[in-house]
Amino acid sequence: MAKATGHKGADEELCRLAAFPEENPHPTLEMDLAGLVTYLNPAARAYFPDLLTAGAQHPILEGLPQVLARLQNTGEKTLVREIMFDTSIYEQHVVLHGNALQIYLADVTERKQAEQALRQVKLVIENSPAVLFQWRAEPGWPVELVSENIAQFGYSAAELLSGSLPYLALVHPDDRHRVQREIEMHVERGDERWAQQYRLVTGEGRTRWVDSRMVVERDPTGRLTHYQGIIIDITEYKQLEAQFLQLQKMESICRLADGVAHDFSNLLSVIAGYGELLVRHLDPGHPLRQHAEEVQRVANRAATLTRQLLAFSRKQVLQPKVLDLNAVVANVSQLLQRVLEKQITLAIIPGEELGQVKADPGQLEQVILNLAINARDAMPQGGTLTIA
Hints:
The chain is an alpha+beta fold and 388 residues long. The chain has helices at 11-19, 42-47, 51-54, 64-74, 109-126, 157-161, 173-189, 235-281, 289-313, 325-339, 361-377, and strands at residues 2-3, 28-32, 37-40, 78-85, 88-97, 100-107, 130-136, 143-146, 193-201, 207-218, 224-233, 321-323, 344-348, 357-359, 383-387. The protein has a 6-stranded antiparallel sheet, with helices on both faces. Helix 9 (289-313) packs across helix 11. The longest helix has 47 residues, at 235-281.
């Protein structure tokens, strides 16, 4: 996690403690270049009562001859290293002062444990889909803290912390007013936390949907100073949601098609029945016989359309039959012309010496219809759909 901070050295404090070792709460000792301990402050006597007798052989001073050699060879005056003693971690400051070594020991076990825990938390956060943030409650929402995994949106933490890119600049222009107004409403109501969904524009210029969970931070006087929380990329969820809504619409269309097909089928039964009665009662040479037969042919074509509508709604009972594939394609061609865009030309080339298949006509027509729709969607600029 990145955050803008300052750093102040401890040189002045180190000099003060060196000048007044008795006041130093950390173990402080002095030894000559031969390894003889010549001084222990109260803290050192309390922590390591056997230091005077053990001298340079004490575990806390292990490796000190090598440290002295390095200081003498390099001309350096100070060296800081970490050492382990029992279960504790100490930061050892070694200062070459004339013909003596001054040594200051600080127990940094808790700090090291905290640093390790922080590294683990940072690792978890950077591999998490949730981006942590903190913005100042000022125009544009300047970023004060953001986790490194903001990189998934095409930005670096340093870029946002620089102040040149406030968080509001990341929000999609069409969503900014709504997002700002919603936050103002939550603050006016006294809400301390809330959730929002809106779009971000990534560093590459793409649009991603995010779910934002925010809490407010106030100073001791109650004044709002910061917003903080997480944002999670929910673009895939939004896409699935849109697909689900489309499926719901298609289901409604299927139900409508099913209802229309059944009503149409009832009407066709009456028309076909009267047509059959007319054909039976009219002699072959009667001038109206031809019209009655045309009524029957139209009724049969309408029955085919009804079957196709039922297949589209997937409500048709399966009725496998031995079929001629050329005839099936010819029967469905009229519906295909309606489905295809005007800029798409339909070309049907009947197959020669095709064998027959046993299948449900409606289901087979539905397969052809689905393939035609897929081909149409793959040719937005138009083209030719050939069925052969």
